[in-house]
Structure prediction request, 302 residues.
Amino acid sequence: MYNELIKTGFITIIGRPNAGKSTLLNNILQQKIAIMSDKPQTTRNIINGVYTDADSQIVFIDTPGIHKPKHKLGDYMMKIANSAIKESEIVYLIVNASEKFGSGDERILKIVKELNVPTFLLLNKIDLITPEQLIKTIDFYKDLYDFKEIVPISALKSINVNNLLNVTKKYLVSSIKMYPDDVITDSPEYFIISEFIREKVLQLTEQEIPHSIAVVIDKIEKEENSKKLIIASIIVERKSQKGMIIGKQGKMIREIGKRARRDIEELLSEKIYLELWVKVIEGWRTKPNLIKDLGYRDDIFD
Ligand SMILES: Nc1nc2c(ncn2[C@@H]2O[C@H](COP(=O)(O)OP(=O)(O)OP(=O)(O)O)[C@@H](O)[C@H]2O)c(=O)[nH]1
Ligand SMILES: [Mg+2]
Prediction:
């Protein structure tokens, strides 16, 4: 029923690049809406995921990993992460439990302290450590800040994520549902499609390429009796990068297209044609106007 009272709230997931924020969001939703990769700074925008079960509806906000920005796109990523934290009832601070606490973690802890929002510490990637190491890690973190909860999880292996949800519900207030049961995100479909394509480039390329690209959807078209046609452009910063994306005899771009198509078909539950182009826009990451044109939110630079 739509106007029944259930537990609701907004929870922002923050942490250093690569901590596993997007993996956790996808695991909670049991569907991929946020792209993941082993390259830091994968996520560039905030992505809302709506989780609904019998007694709760919770909006989880995935954010770009917190780092020292080196260009305008990085500035944008940090501003957008901060704006999300301010709108949430609870913050999940996710750390990689298999790595030592470092200066990057310290910077995030400082942000959390200043904001004074109830914060859960999630010790992620516990599949990579022993129980003894975990005990030591908990012991170390518990004295750093008055975390509301410290929850060990593995976002990848789905360890303790249900328990996390149950504990979270205790902190939420009762209210009415904000979204119909079948909504899992308020991000537009074209955005998620462009992200899936970007994910494949991140996974298949190395060095400077992953950070230098953007993807825009040029057209989504459906004609009767034929598959949906999606035309997208992969934007690179330099001519030399264009060649790397295309690959020898087009091998790389074909592989990107093949993998992206699989994910998009699963998202849309239908077969598609995917046509990919590569375009050079010199230095787009350093120019606010271009960043806006490439689909990033335009209220952030004002
Ligand atoms: N072993 C292990 N790996 C994990 C776990 N969670 C995430 N990972 C891996 O860590 C890498 C980063 O995961 P993401 O979810 O993209 O990390 P993120 O925090 O969203 O990163 P940014 O978007 O760059 O800030 C990926 O290769 C994941 O497969 C986990 O619980 N265990
Ligand atoms: Mg991410």
